[in-house]
Design goal:
The longest helix is centred in the N-terminal third of the chain and has 18 residues. The chain folds into two domains: 100 residues, de novo design (two linked rop proteins) (Up-down Bundle), CATH 1.20.1440; 69 residues, Alpha-Beta Plaits (2-Layer Sandwich). The strands form two sheets. A two-stranded antiparallel sheet has the order 1-4. With 195 residues, it is mainly alpha-helical.
Length: 195
């Protein structure tokens, strides 16, 4: 028989703290808490954690509203006061700690300050820096990069661009670009600044 190691709240918090974005930390923590250490014996914790996960997911995917943040804070306050075990109270403390940061407010405005939440970022190609080598197109397994490789003594090539609907924001294109022509920007920014 395979014995599964029991997840501990401290281990989940440690892994969550490795993430740079407070929204990602909170969402990861609550998701893992629900799948492991939560016992489900008291309503504030069991029902609250599920509702908090839904609200945190809204904030992380860009559809969050002020009501979602207020609900997470209310849920955490209720859990802190009424949970019957230390695990539930610790979860509430962590959620309150993370939601006190300005990062959550920024997410509600459509910006991830850490540029890690995929709903808020885009990879863009700066045409003036692009040499049309095609490395980005070759590496993109999602076929999100469109354009034509430049050939000697010919002209009229379509410049490279990243189709945002297809882009999975994996970052492979930015890693192979030899000229730094691909940049990461906030998706609310229409044109790259300072280029």
């Amino acid at each position: 028989m395979n014995e599964q190691k029991e997840l501990k709240v401290e281990d989940i918090k440690k892994t969550a703290d490795e993430k740079s974005c407070a929204v990602e930390k909170a969402l990861y923590y609550v998701t893992e808490f629900l799948s492991g250490p939560m016992c489900g014996k008291c309503f504030p914790c069991s029902l609250g954690s599920y509702e908090a996960k839904v609200r945190l997911q809204h904030i992380a995917d860009g559809s969050g509203k002020d009501d979602d943040l207020a609900a997470v804070r209310r849920i955490a306050g209720n859990m802190l006061e009424a949970s019957m075990c230390k695990k539930g109270k610790d979860t509430a403390k962590f959620m309150l700690e993370w939601t006190d940061s300005d990062v959550f407010k920024k997410h509600l405005e459509g910006i991830c300050p850490d540029r890690t939440c995929v709903a808020f970022i885009e990879y863009r190609i700066i045409p003036e820096k692009c040499t049309m080598c095609g490395l980005c197109k070759d590496v993109c397994i999602y076929n999100a990069v469109h354009g034509e490789k430049k050939k000697p003594f010919q002209s009229g090539f379509r410049p490279f661009e990243i189709r945002q609907q297809k882009c999975q924001k994996c970052g492979d294109c930015i890693k192979v670009c030899p000229t730094g022509a691909i940049i990461l920007v906030d998706s609310k920014v229409k044109e790259p600044v300072g280029v």
